[in-house]
Amino acid sequence: MPAQPPPPSGSSPETHVIDYRAAEQLLAARDPQGAVKLLDSVIAAHPENTAARLLRARAFFAAAQLRPAALEFELVLEREPDNAFAHFALARTHERSGRPEQARKHFRLAAALDPQPDYLAAARFEE
C-alpha cells in the first residue's frame, strides 16, 4: 500500500471532525458542493473513514453528480456489505441514472437487511 501524503499544514484530527460536522450542516442546508469540498480533505487524511465517504456520497447525490455518488456508495458497500442505507442510496442513484435492474437489486438488498417500510416499498417484492 503506498504511503499517504502528510496532511496539509494546520490540519489535525480535530480539524477533520469539525470539517465533517460542518459538511453535515452544509448538506442539511442544501449546499452539497460545499459539503464535498470539506469532505475531500477529511477523506484525503482518513481514506478508511466510511462515515465521511457515506456523507460525501450523499452530497454527490444531492448535487446530481451520480457517477461519483455511485462510486462512493460502492466503496462503502465493499467495506460494509450489510449497510442497508448504502444499498438503498445506491439503488436511488442507479434509479436516477436510468439503471432500473441495478436499482432493484440494491433496493431488495436494503429491504432484506432492514425491512423498514421505505425500503420494502422500494423493493417491490410483489413484482
From TrEMBL:
<dbReference type="Pfam" id="PF07719">
    <property type="entry name" value="TPR_2"/>
</dbReference>
<protein>
    <submittedName>
        <fullName>Tetratricopeptide repeat protein</fullName>
    </submittedName>
</protein>
<dbReference type="Pfam" id="PF14559">
    <property type="entry name" value="TPR_19"/>
</dbReference>
<keyword id="KW-0802">TPR repeat</keyword>
<dbReference type="InterPro" id="IPR011990">
    <property type="entry name" value="TPR-like_helical_dom_sf"/>
</dbReference>
<keyword id="KW-0677">Repeat</keyword>
<feature type="repeat" description="TPR">
    <location>
        <begin position="84"/>
        <end position="117"/>
    </location>
</feature>
<dbReference type="InterPro" id="IPR013105">
    <property type="entry name" value="TPR_2"/>
</dbReference>
<dbReference type="InterPro" id="IPR019734">
    <property type="entry name" value="TPR_rpt"/>
</dbReference>
